[in-house]
Specification:
- The chain is mainly alpha-helical and 311 residues long.
- Among the domains are: 12-154, no CATH class; 275-311, no CATH class.
- The chain has 13 helices and two strands, in the order H-H-H-H-H-E-E-H-H-H-H-H-H-H-H.
- The protein has helices at residues 12-44, 51-65, 69-81, 93-98, 105-108, 125-135, 142-152, 156-166, 170-178, 180-224, 236-255, 266-292, 299-310; strands spanning 114-115, 120-121.
- It starts with 11 loop residues before the first helix and ends with a helix.
Amino acid sequence: MTTLTIPDGYTKSAWEKIVRRGRKLMKEKSGIQWALGDFVIEALEGHTRGHGEAAQVIKTLAYQIGANPETLRGYYDVARQWPKTKRRKDVSFSVHATLAYVPSRYVLIRKDPYDPFTKEHRWTVNEAQKVANRAVGTPTNQEERLAHTRRLLHTDEDAAKAVTEMLGRPDVRARLASDQHARHLMRQAQYEHWREVDEAAEAEAELASVDDAAEVEEEFEEEAAPLGVRYSEAPMEILRLIGAFASFSVSLQRIIPEVHSQDYTEETKQAVLDNVHKARMLLDWCETAITTGRTDPDKALARLMEDEEGE
């Protein structure tokens, strides 16, 4: 092993042993990354697909084998750019990934650059980035431009900001709207977003249920005091009704401010309006039961409840 910088508190032999072990682990990791990339290539082999279809296959495969879809796609992209005969076993997968879209990568990879940190001639991600930035400083085709953009927007925050700005361009929006894969990704993202919002709202409602019940009790006692009725003496079914109304009210107050109807499809809006109609019918039923004593639902509501039970 060539000369290494030895941190304070370590002997030369102890540190060299640590470095050797770390490099061995990195080599093993690279082997797994290459294997997964080649595995995806083999899985897609013989199944001609467009870009969007291939991406969906990779995503499905990733979920079913317990991998991150973006990570697995990255392994696949790098493996495609580096045929097995052009790879160097003594150079990490990360270096190959950094150089993946450099036109002269097959020649560059043969010669080890000088690493000023370790004072060795060896490939590191840092040195690969220097080469990649010089080589593709001015991208000449779409593939190079996209690769350059991926390197610049390597954080989710930066990428999301860039996408938001790009959506301000009418032509970009039009292209995305006509791209089936892009529409699928947006629908899926919206579904995941609102599912998380619903779960968070439900969790908050559960946590707030005790406080809500206390608030309802105070309000009920204040309103019922002139009639000489105490909340603690109210029938259980009344307490349950008031608790249901309180939970319903709290949930709506938290969710409705987040509504942005301009982004919803007509089908989505209609689904919400159908539920509003159902809620009104249930409230009318409750009012009738309290004021008249009749607890049987009308025919329309009875049919509605039968339909829901049959679903």
